[in-house]
Design a protein that fits this description.
Blueprint: H1 4-20, H2 26-32, H3 39-51, E1 55-56, E2 65-66, H4 68-76, H5 86-97, H6 102-117, E3 120-124, E4 133-142, E5 145-152, E6 157-163, H7 170-184, H8 189-195, H9 208-222, E7 231-234, H10 251-256, H11 260-267, E8 276-280, E9 292-299, E10 306-313, H12 318-338
Antiparallel strand pairs: 1-2, 3-7, 3-10, 4-5, 5-6, 8-9, 9-10
Length: 339
């Protein structure tokens, strides 16, 4: 276990390397930071940090840079996150409040997160499995055509057009709409699907063919797991600023980020709302991304709906980036709860 002085030296090395992009020497640390010790003591502390694997010397006669292990200890020992400025908070709030639907919320979230962090931003669409039914609408488009609309607690809207063989009276449509809402309102989508099975038999025999088609369509809508695999990505061009941070080429990183399955795994499983997850370097579950770090947070008010986060080089401003990810997750949660 490192003592407080060595932790202070490690913290100074991380902060200087992130800001200057240059290996850090003992003289620079003494000049820039109030460490309260001599350059010789700092050199001894740096030697101890290097021996324990927290820093490394990239070239002979060069200063030191943090290793993945060093970044991990730095992040784990953070006591406070760099707060966002009032203008940054207002920008997030104003930008997200202008969203017109769920897709717009996600697009805006990706854009503001990429701008704030100058990293690659990823936002997972809310999971249907974790959502509840807010409303079911059934609209007559023509005598033999209906529009079924499912609105979830996450703000997602699923629409299905239903063709019927026989004309459907408005009375049946109104009655069915009422019964569908009574059975599913406030229910988690998997539970809602289970509660729909008995509705068909409650209608007169002559109406059951139409009712059956509508119920089957609604069950398919609430059970559609494909929507849980959707993500939005923004700010990929930001990585080009960090070309020297990658061992050989940035191409493998960019290619990996094109795969949505990879992105979903990077974000990880949503846990408690707004809880932060930080994976650094080789902790990231893909060799192509071993020179990156991922910071992610779950969003949702009372429970997690999905996850958002950023991907960037291990040499990143962790306190500032963590604060931005957490703030955007909080504002997205608030926006979806009031939409």
């Amino acid at each position: 276990m490192l003592d407080d002085r060595k932790l202070a030296v490690l913290r100074a090395i991380v902060e200087d390397y992130v800001s200057t992009e240059e290996p850090v020497g003992s003289k620079a640390l003494v000049d820039r930071h109030q460490l309260g010790v001599s350059p010789a003591t700092v050199r001894n502390d740096m030697a101890a940090l290097e021996e324990e694997g927290f820093i490394a010397q990239p070239h002979t006669s060069a200063g030191r840079i943090p290793t993945d292990k060093g970044y991990r200890l730095f992040v784990d020992r953070l006591t406070t996150l760099q707060p966002l400025s009032p203008p940054e908070r207002r920008a997030i709030s104003t930008f997200l409040e202008g969203a017109v639907d769920l897709d717009d919320v996600v697009r805006r979230s990706v854009r503001i997160l990429a701008q704030l962090t100058r990293q690659v931003a990823i936002v997972q669409y809310p999971s249907l499995i974790r959502s509840t039914v807010r409303h079911v609408e059934l609209v007559t488009l023509s005598p033999t055509r209906l529009l079924l609309v499912l609105i979830t607690s996450s703000g997602r809207v699923e629409q299905r057009v239903i063709e019927t063989q026989l004309p459907v009276g408005e009375g049946i449509v109104s009655d069915l709409r009422s019964r569908l809402n009574s059975a599913t309102l406030g229910q988690r989508l998997p539970d809602a699907a289970n509660r729909l099975g008995d509705i068909v038999d409650t209608f007169p025999i002559a109406d059951r063919p139409v009712v059956s088609v509508v119920v089957t369509t609604l069950v398919e809508a609430v059970s559609d797991e494909r929507s849980d695999e959707r993500v939005a990505v923004g700010g990929t061009a930001n990585l080009m600023r960090f070309g020297d941070d990658f061992d050989t080429s940035i191409r493998p990183v960019l290619e990996a980020l094109e795969e949505h399955v990879v992105l979903l795994r990077l974000l990880g499983e949503a846990t408690s709302p707004r809880a932060l997850t930080v994976r650094i370097g080789h902790e990231v579950p893909y060799d192509e991304l071993s020179t990156t770090s991922v910071i992610a947070a779950a969003y949702g008010m009372d429970e997690s709906l999905a996850t958002l986060g950023v991907v960037g080089p291990t040499r990143m401003d962790y306190p500032g980036t963590m604060a931005a990810v957490r703030a955007v997750a909080r504002y997205v949660s608030r926006t979806l709860s009031t939409s």
